[in-house]
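Support request, priority: normal
Reporter: lab tech (M.K.)
Component: structure prediction queue

Hi team, I submitted a job for 5-formyltetrahydrofolate cyclo-ligase from Parashewanella spongiae yesterday, and the status page still shows it as pending. I've pasted the exact input below so you can check whether something in the sequence is tripping the parser. The sequence length should be 191 residues. Please let me know if I need to resubmit or if it's stuck on your end.
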Amino acid sequence: MDRKSLRQSIRKQRNALTRQQQESFSFQGASRILDCLKNKQVKTVALYLSNDGELDTTPLIEKLWEKSIRVCLPVLHPFNKGQLLFLHYDGKSKMRYNKYGIAEPCLDIRNVIPVTELDVIITPLVAFDCHGNRMGMGGGYYDRTLANVDLVTTKVIGFAHDCQQISKVPIESWDVPLSTIVTPSTLHQFD
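Reply from support: The job had stalled in the queue. We restarted it manually and it finished. Here are the results:
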């Protein structure tokens, strides 16, 4: 199956989950990520607002705020095409919709958090395999971002439904594999 067809198939599967399943899986996934971060010095976490049937990050965001962990969201870079910026996000952040219809904080240079200050980046994905390979939506934003991240000091975690695991992700030279992927039922660790 080509990448485009694979994306469509997996997106269809996750969008077919009921509202109750989505809610339950989101709380399970949030709990699993918090367990994964428990014994680490985490002050700043970058993640995303869910879209298109992705595992809902709202319960996780709320738990991070309860623990006084700073939350950042990605914003499409206004000048460097294909790049992401991360902005501080709280319940009062002014939001807008980007060209993909995804909510993001309004760009304010005072709220930009350099990737060097991110302790954890939680990435969305469409599909993943047992080797930590991830396939995104096809824009390459996270692959370009992760190529510039020190993976020793910043932990990168994929966040997905269990139904998004496949036997083998068709990878390209620019794809950045992940060492950790969290689903509602499993913490996957890869070498």
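The chain has a mean pLDDT of 93. The first helix runs from residue 3 to 15. Let us know if anything else looks off. Ticket resolved.
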